Fold this sequence. Notes:
Structural class: mainly alpha
CATH class of the domain at 5-78 and 203-252: Alpha Beta
Distance between the termini: 77 Å
CATH superfamily of the domain at 5-78 and 203-252: HUPs
Largest sheet: 3 strands, antiparallel
Strand content: 5-15%
Shape: elongated
Number of helices: 20
Low-confidence stretches: none
CATH topology of the domain at 5-78 and 203-252: Rossmann fold
Amino acid sequence: xxxxxxxxxPSPTGALHIGGLRTALYNYLLARQTxxxxxxxxxxxxxxxxxxxxxxxxxxxxxxxxxxxxxxxVQGGNKGPYRQSERKEIYKQFTDxxxxxxxxxxxxxxxxxxxxxxxxxxxxxxxxxxxxxxTRMQMVNSLTLSAxxxxxxIAEGKFVIRMxxxxxxxxxxxxxxxxxVEFDSAQVDDKVLxxxxxxPTYHLANVVDDHLMEITHVIRGxxxxxxxxxxxxxxxxxxxxxxMPSFAHLPLLLKPDGNxxxxxxxxxxxxxxxxxxxxxxxxTGETARGYKESGYLPDALINFLAFLGWNPGTDxxxxxxxxxxxxxxxxxxxxxxxxxxxxxxQWFNQQYIRMRSAGELARWLQSQCAQKSIPCSxxxxxxxxxxxxxxxxxxxxxxxxxxxxxxxxxxxDLGVVSKKKTPQTEKVLDKYxxxxxxxxxxxxxxxxxLLEKVCLEEGIKTGQVLQLLRVCLTGAxxxxxxxxxxxxxxxxxxxxxxxxxxxxxxx
RNA sequence: GCUCCGUUCGUCUAGGGGUUAGGACAUCAGAUUUUCAUUCUGGUAACACGGGUUCGAUUCCCGUACGGAGUACCA
Length: 507
């Protein structure tokens, strides 16, 4: 396999969207699989949309997700710089070349003039309202103005450079996911290549950089497919057709319900994260919760994301990053958009939590306790973790489901109480409490044997008191196995809880 | 409007001219757990529609419908 050079090229206009993370992942998988190079390129050519902190956020998010960058603004590399704003001079050379060869031209139209053109076209019932070969000669540009006038306007410094797209050409794109896609160059417009502030547009910058950085595969979202013919034309114009990268346009991530692509709004409404990490928008001060902070494990999220649009063709679903790298292939990416389903993400998380060691879960619990200033020994944390392990989806559930190990219940399931509390069961629990009172440490088996003994003396089955006992101890009707719980709590604590609960039930 | 892309259970998908159309999530039922969860077993549930091509089409072709994307001096 020839080593692939791929890039993830976000623009620092905000937090990294979960769909962007998937795009980065697919790029990364191909890079690692082929022993190639993963490049991060910051596409910050729109100065008006620049958001401070966004670049740093993107880098931290990728790092958390386990997507390691080989070349980028932080790591450097010999094809840099990796921020497009720092490559301004490079782009100028290339537009100059196109200008000289007559493949691009200067345009001076104001925004109002452009709008007027579109309005005119709409009114006339034309099929499109593009600045293209059919309209360019009616516009204010170096094609329609005299050489002197053009020179004067250029000297004023207010101009854009547009691609001069020839009509009547068939543009063929061989997409790795979609196969051959054909376009008619007549419907490609004369896109702006260089903006009036001297910055390139995405179209120019992307082609120039991909060429200069020797990118072999452009793996990006499907939203780029319509502008792909322009990019192909640009490669041709520069004479780079032979070394043009392969394209793979990824299916989009769609809303869980309704129509359209997944947006932050949907996530907010349905209550799930859309960003990898917590993000505070510096403009609005608004904070959005991240996957990390919501308790998703990075490898679980990655596994989930990998399967949204790709599958290995086998029944295996749990894949580590290494396994994904080994099995991944662009050919097995599906063509249609994938609805985003947070339930599946939760299921993956649950699976990954179970694969963690009791020790690791214990450390999570200990840190949660520490935050609440509740002491928790390693031994206790580990015991709790092992009884709770199969029952949780997020690390925070350790506390939610195990709080009763630290604080006696204040609320009790009254349904169980009214159903199970009889003079007889009360008496059993009373006696059980006394038996427990001199046993600070007690094993599961002993707790069980003791209960059976008391029940036998009172002539009832253990099953008749078990649930009432659980409510006394934990307050709830359901929960982890009772005997191990008693062992964790210890005899003294259990006795106290039984007594106080029984007292409460009397009133 | 125009251009491009797409369409298999509710969801993610496998499959592919002749299959009992497979798996996973979700859901329902039963078993286990004298609780809940887990686990196990089983169930419900899909080839958008219409024309071709063919002995035969869910699979290939063409339309239609529906969905999506793009249509900026944003990426």
